[in-house]
Amino acid sequence: MNLVEKMVLEQGIALSNDVLKVDAFLNQQIQLSFMKEVGRLFADYFKDKVITKILTIESSGIAPAYATALQLDVPVVIAKKKTCLTSSSNTYQSKVYSFTKQYTYNMSVDQDFLSPTDRILIIDDFLANGQAALGAIDICDQAQVNVIGFGAVIEKSFQKGRQLLDEMDIDVYSLARVQSLENQQIQLL
Ligand code: G4P
Q1: Which one, of 49, 41, 48, 44, lies nearest residue 119 by Cα?
Q2: Number of helical (H) and strand (E) elements in the chain, helices listed first
Q3: Which pTM was predicted?
Q4: CA of 93 to the centre of ligand 1 (A)
Q5: Do the beta carbons of residue 83 and residue 108 sit within 8 Å?
Q6: Which of 26, 61, 141, 173 has the fewest CB atoms within 10 Å of its CB?
Q7: Best of 25, 124, 126 to mutate for ligand 1, by most ligand atoms within 8 A of CB?
Q8: Residue 141: which H helix or E strand, with range?
Q9: pLDDT digit string, tens, across residues 68-93
Q10: pLDDT at 130
Q11: Is the CB of 20 under 6 A from ligand 1?
């Protein structure tokens, strides 16, 4: 059992049959030794794949992406969910519907930060229904960059994200795979 699986079992809380609360180490409080190990595990898996950049989605994807980028010594590009005063007018954009949060947002990345020679690893905190992953892949397609893989700290294997990415032949690596949250019991694969 790796450290992520251990933390999920020991500190995760099944809020319902669908939602796992991991605020204690991933979504609100970030434990550094934990995040360092997350980076090491992702880097170890993807180290021979010649990654040039990591793409993540704000906000909870940033910490695991950064921890992995430190190990692989590559930059991190953060896909934004909102525009602000300094936002570029030249962006790749993709509309993403969040089933968990029941809203649609516009994911965007400045065109300057992705170039056709890039080999991208996408990292996020959760792989649930896969909509954020599909948005990030769509942005990579627009930028004509290669998506080398997708890393999720936690995958909810009972939702359809994993299957969607498998069908697209994306190399998915999840550090903990949750099979079920039924009856407030966290079951891993
Ligand atoms: P998807 O991206 O796989 O389709 O998932 P979905 O739309 O269902 O989830 C959207 C948001 O909810 C994401 O965060 C995702 O990380 C988070 N999420 C999904 N399932 C769970 C869960 O069981 N537990 C927790 N803690 N989060 C979950 P987000 O909106 O991007 O938020 P944030 O990154 O700003 O924190």
Answers
A1: 49
A2: 5, 10
A3: 0.96
A4: 19
A5: yes
A6: 141
A7: 126
A8: helix 131-142
A9: 999 999 999 999 998 887 888 899 99
A10: 98
A11: yes
